[in-house]
Amino acid sequence: MEQFEQQQAQTLAQVAAAADLDTLEAIRVAALGKQGWVSALLKSLGGMSPEARTSEGPRIQAAREAVSGALAARKAALESAALEAKLANETVDLSLPAPRLPRGSVHPVSQVMDELAEIFADMGFAVATGPEIEDDWHNFTALNMPETHPARAMHDTFYFPDKDAAGRAMLLRTHTSPVQIRSMLAEGAPLRIIAPGRVYRSDSDATHTPMFHQIEGLVIDKGIHIGHLKWTLETFLKAFFERDDIVLRLRPSYFPFTEPSIEVDVGYTLVNGKRVIGGGGDVAGGGWMEVLGSGMVNRKVIAFGGLDPDEWQGFAFGTGVDRLAMLKYGMDDLRAFFDGDARWLEHYGFGALDVPTLSGGVGARA
Ligand code: PHE
Question: Which of 20, 184, 189, 351 could pair with 220 in a Cys bridge, judged by C-beta atoms 3.0 to 4.6 Å apart?
């Protein structure tokens, strides 16, 4: 019996010292489990004489209750200590400053390209792309600028020192017009594409950067005429500037790849000394701003695109994306577009979730 009292004292000491619930469970199994010492004592009652059972029975029951009571008390204490620790750790300090809002914004060039894609998608145009490292055949020759053509010199082209495998001079494309040729050769006709992207010219001041962005438009189909061109540009500019009072002036011009060639001016009005697109034109206080180059695709260009110019006609246009962004959103220095100044981006950038849609408005919401 001494041994049994010793065992009880030892178990109670272990329970008191148990630092976690796993240890406590191991102690419970060693005492009250099927193979435990308390269970073994209870089983031994069956082999005792009635007198011994009467005296030992209550002692063994008392030991069982002492052990299970101590286990339950210790378990409750450990659990509440764990809860206290958790609550202490998870304290929220409401006096701390609010977390920073997510940083980063959509660059105005990306925003305007998205707006243009949305507007032209609605008119059935697909988006086409071409390489920024071009060869002189796609950039010039196939656009009706043979090697001796003076327009080549006007483009301030960045050339690479080596020619490609076909012996063509390699360059950074000076406009998005080579995508006209690539699209005709790849897709055939009919065709309705826009081609936004980077272009390069060796030129640098407040309104010119060596890299800038253009968007090209090309429609090839049967029976296409200048009326289609004018309607398309007017519809596009009204949607882009989100105004119905857009006034266009078409001026005869010259591009080797269009015939006839047309430069498109849009009317502006002075508002607080600033030129705002819409209305204006020849009326007092108004004026014209050149926004687009365009024209009917030159027959030679259609042939270079692998199509029969007696069967297919089309129009093309090109404009500067950065310039469109400046006119719509009011920046006045092009160079700041490419400085990567976080303050400029914070001021002129757009929310990443503010996706332009025709139904929600292609412009940015406040
Ligand atoms: N590629 C011309 C430029 O860079 C723009 C243009 C495109 C003009 C298509 C007419 C037709 O100035």
Answer: 189
Give, using CA atoms, the residue closest to atom 5 of ligand 1. 318
Give the burial class of 49: count Cβ atoms within 10 A of its Cβ; 0-12 exposed, 13-18 middle, 19 or more buried: exposed
Alpha-helical regions (H) of the chain = 2-17, 21-32, 37-44, 50-89, 108-122, 136-139, 150-154, 178-187, 226-241, 299-304, 321-329, 342-348
Is 335 within 8 Å of 212 (Cβ atoms)? no
Q: Is 317 in the pocket of ligand 1 (CB under 6 A)?
A: yes
Q: Measured in angstroms, how far is the CA atom of residue 175 from the centroid of ligand 1?
A: 7
Number of other CB atoms surrounding residue 126 within 10 Å = 14
Residue whose Cα lies nearest atom 6 of ligand 1: it is 318
Supply the pTM of this predicted model: 0.72
The whole-number average pLDDT for the span 37-45 is: 86
> Mean of the pLDDT values across residues 324-342?
91
Ligand 1 in contact with 217 (CB < 6 A)? no
Q: What is the fold of 108-348?
A: BirA Bifunctional Protein; domain 2 (3.30.930)
Q: Is 258 in the pocket of ligand 1 (CB under 6 A)?
A: yes
* Nearest residue to 236 via CA among 318, 355, 130: 318
Distance CA(214)–CA(199), nearest Å, equals: 7
Question: What confidence tens digit (pLDDT) does each residue in 181-235 have?
Answer: 999 999 999 999 999 999 999 888 878 899 999 999 999 999 999 999 999 999 9
Ligand 1 centroid, distance to 62 Cα (angstroms): 101
Q: Is the CB of 175 under 6 A from ligand 1?
A: yes
> Six-digit token pair at 251?
């001026």
SS3 (DSSP) at 172: strand
- Residue 295: strand pairing partners: 261, 316
Tell me how far the alpha carbon of residue 245 lies from the centroid of ligand 1, in angstroms.
Answer: 25
Helix (H) / strand (E) element for 263: namely: strand 258-271
Distance from the alpha carbon of residue 216 to the mean position of ligand 1, in angstroms: 7
* Residue 224: both structure tokens together: 């296409």
